[in-house]
């Protein structure tokens, strides 16, 4: 066993032991209220939990934690060739089960995380707008431990208990402040959202210098059941890897009908239909790349990587409808259908033994 792998096991086990021994009456600030310089991150930003247990992974990540068993929960979003996604540490998992304990999987080495195997990303569009950066596209999700038929769900820094999904998940980027030319400088992103499932993904990071309700609303996390089409309107294509500038999207839920601006709110129960069709914002200055020029992880794909899940088109369908239970989520699928819930409230505890999976006990 290599030293980095052994050290990662120790870190994961230590996180589980400290969580089991922690007093659940001890609380920390909501995840979105916690701010740290990247170099000053603690071992865990949420060492104490509640009904869902304690943070499973760690936030202080480096070369000693970079391997395919890493439990790093600090995500980096720098560019089309250097970004991470949240996904499960356990093979053949679902977002509905793993949302609380997901770890970072990165397209590039150097962040102390798990690395996406070669061939994981099947088409990527990176869009820079005045208010947010969005990385969206197609993925063989079996290569990042999701079941081929999982239609996924949504991750964000809030959650019902305000501890985030994943719990303790931190996000940093060199894309901010706007105009930053020092690629080694990472700024914390407070508001973000990620969808993954149905072999599609979207990661949106909102400009942390803009705190208006409109800007924060672009990373709104309460429209999880309508999926990527409405939350991340885009023109990503399979087999295409491009970087573009673009206009900002209209805040999700907002549309114009008969000349009147109206806001639709996603119901939490019953049968409903979205009353409008999302519009893909204009883009310009697009540059295309070959995937072999962007991704050189040299990590062998897993044998299960068939990528057979049939997700909705990233360009989307209009009039998404759903019949849902209160508190459930339709996940990443644009049409709102899903095989799992992304907002399941997990009770009990989550623990790690060696490199074994974290297990969520459902109420």
Automatic annotation (TrEMBL):
Regions of compositional bias (Low complexity) in chain numbering: 303-337
Keyword Transmembrane: yes
Residues making up the signal peptide according to the UniProt record: 1-22
Superkingdom in the source lineage: Eukaryota
Region feature Disordered, mapped onto this chain: 301-337
Transmembrane segments: 344-362
Name assigned to this protein: Macrofage activating glycoprotein
């Amino acid at each position: 066993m290599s030293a980095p792998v052994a050290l990662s096991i120790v870190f994961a086990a230590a996180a589980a032991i400290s969580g089991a021994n922690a007093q659940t009456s001890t609380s920390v600030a909501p995840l979105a209220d916690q701010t740290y310089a990247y170099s000053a991150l603690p071992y865990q930003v949420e060492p104490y939990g509640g009904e869902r247990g304690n943070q499973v992974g760690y936030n202080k990540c480096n070369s000693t934690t970079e391997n395919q068993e890493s439990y790093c929960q600090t995500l980096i979003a720098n560019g089309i060739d250097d970004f991470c996604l949240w996904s499960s540490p356990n093979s053949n998992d679902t977002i509905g089960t793993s949302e609380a304990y997901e770890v970072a999987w990165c397209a590039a080495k150097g962040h102390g995380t798990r690395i996406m195997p070669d061939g994981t990303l099947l088409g990527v569009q990176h869009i820079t707008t005045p208010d947010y950066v969005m990385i969206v596209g197609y993925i063989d999700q079996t290569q990042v431990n999701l079941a081929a038929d999982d239609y996924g769900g949504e991750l964000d820094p809030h959650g019902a208990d305000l501890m985030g999904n994943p719990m303790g998940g931190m996000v940093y980027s060199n894309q901010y402040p706007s105009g930053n030319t020092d690629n080694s400088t990472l700024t914390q992103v407070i508001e973000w959202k990620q969808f993954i499932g149905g072999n599609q993904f979207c990661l949106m990071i909102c400009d942390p210098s803009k705190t208006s309700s409109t800007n924060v609303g672009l990373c709104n996390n309460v429209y999880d059941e309508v999926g990527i089409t409405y939350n991340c309107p885009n023109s990503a294509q399979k087999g295409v890897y491009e970087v573009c500038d673009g206009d900002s999207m209209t805040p999700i839920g907002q549309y114009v009908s008969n000349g009147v601006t109206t806001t639709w709110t996603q119901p939490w129960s019953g049968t409903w239909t979205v009353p409008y069709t999302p519009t893909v914002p204009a883009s310009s200055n697009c540059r295309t790349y070959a995937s072999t020029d962007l991704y050189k992880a040299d990590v062998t794909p897993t044998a299960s990587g068939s990528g057979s899940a049939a997700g909705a088109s990233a360009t989307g369908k209009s009039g998404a409808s759903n019949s849902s239970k209160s508190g459930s989520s339709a996940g990443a699928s644009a049409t709102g259908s899903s095989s799992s819930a992304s907002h399941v409230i997990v009770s009990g505890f989550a623990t790690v033994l060696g490199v074994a999976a974290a297990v969520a006990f459902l109420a």
